[in-house]
Amino acid sequence: MRYVSTRGAAAALGFEDVTLAGLASDGGLYLPESWPVFTSDQIAALKGLSYVDTAVAVMKPFVADAIDEAGLRALCAAAYGRFAHAAVTPLVQLDQRHFLLELFHGPTLAFKDVALQLLGLLFERFLSSRDTHLTIIGATSGDTGSAAIDALAGRAKVDVFMLHPAGRVSDVQRRQMTTVLAPNIHNIAIDGSFDDAQAIVKAAFADTDFAGRYRLGAVNSINWARLMAQLVYYFYAAVRLGAPDRAVAFSVPTGNFGDVFAGYAAAKMGLPVAKLIVATNVNDILHRALSAGDYSTGTVTPTAAPSMDIQVSSNFERLLFDLHGRDGAALSAAMAGFEADRRMTLSEAQRAEAAGLFVSARVDPDEMALAMRWGFQETGQIIDPHSAIGLSAARAADLPADVPVVTLATAHPAKFRDAVERATGQRPGLPARISGLFEREERYATLPATLGAIQEHIVAHGTPARVAEPA
């Protein structure tokens, strides 16, 4: 299995190098050179398997010879052994056709744990045989940061510099990051938005001298290994609802397009996905792109679903690569235009191609609150604002009556206690595994939203890729 950049100029790499690199050297994102395709019999063989065994079967083609099957199984067992539910990502039935896929049973209560617990172990395995140090620089709108920090705290040969927008994450999200006092963890609150943080991360990778001196790596969903791990739960859920003999629809609350692109990858592999519902909040660039061809940025509006308060969806580039016929040069030119003008128009043909699998919805704050209220009053389920956006879009979707619809429940409601209480009158308590969070010491730096300020901080507190031996 080889991986190519969406922008066509970077060298193709194997799985280990792609995992450590994160972003391609030409600024693009890595994708498999071709999609492995499962037969109906192979999908049917997943029925009844544990989550770990499902993960091994689904990810094995992507890992190829970088890790043998026994090694991959050991990594998956370690990663998912920390989850609080034996099913890892259990399905919960809401009514005759709607289901929640609970992705928040990991150590930091969000779906990012599913990928990042594994990614932390992959980093450790690959770095153990290399004479190099890795510096992770990441941007978070809330959940990626805490999941990456939990997965990487105290690990050898890795430093983590995590940027979050000051005042734009929930108190639980912030404290899950800033109360981890491991010496290799460095939290930074920037005076700006998530999009500003994401732009700084990409600019740091683009500074080739700096990126080489510190060997920058990525935990954001620009890293292919994250999406590889996330596509597993689409298979896990679908076979429990009748796949391969029955198609299943998924509603995905998303801002950065990573989680829903994992569903697209699963469909490319042969999983019978009826539709992928792209559920956005009022920061609706993805809905505008898919419904009207208008991929243009606006001003980020802070909401009660902060992980979706995004106007530049990095992973959308991976879909655009396929919509441009996998022509890296053509996409590179299109992305250069977007980065200059902050807008791009999808052609009628591209929109029609995307519409074969994707539909989209924009969910406003009132609709989000109504979905939370419906979930509690009609099914007894308390859900967080992001999951409520997905559920609202799922219930409004025009789909055949015999197609089950799975909404991805991306975060535990306790991470957004105020918003949940406003909508339902119920204030969810923190699970025991993060009890004491509000009594712990916080530690983080507050810096301007500039590349220079972040680079200076990394130079002051980080470790170069190769540390000079003492004279």
Key terms:
471 residues, alpha/beta, Rossmann fold, 6-stranded mixed beta sheet, 5-stranded parallel beta sheet, 19 helices
Care to describe what's here?
The chain is built from 19 helices and 15 strands. The mean pLDDT is 95. The longest helix has 17 residues. It has 471 residues and is α/β, with parallel strands linked by helices. Helix 6 links the parallel strand 5 and strand 6. The strands form four sheets. Strands 3-4-14-9-10-13 form a six-stranded mixed β-sheet, sandwiched between helices. Strands 8-5-6-7-15 form a five-stranded parallel β-sheet, sandwiched between helices. It folds into two domains: 220 residues, Rossmann fold (3-Layer(aba) Sandwich); 120 residues, Rossmann fold. It is an enzyme of class 4 (lyase).
Largest sheet: number of strands, sense, barrel closure: 6 strands, mixed
Helix content: 40-55%
Strand order of the largest sheet: 3-4-14-9-10-13
Mean pLDDT: 95
What portion of residues belong to β-strands? Answer: 15-25%
Q: Counting H and I runs of at least 4 residues, what is the number of helices?
A: 19
| Shape, principal axes of CA atoms | globular
Report the C-alpha radius of gyration, rounded: 21 Å
Cofactor: pyridoxal 5'-phosphate
Organism: Sphingomonas naphthae
GO molecular function: threonine synthase activity
Domain Tryptophan synthase beta chain-like PALP: 87-347
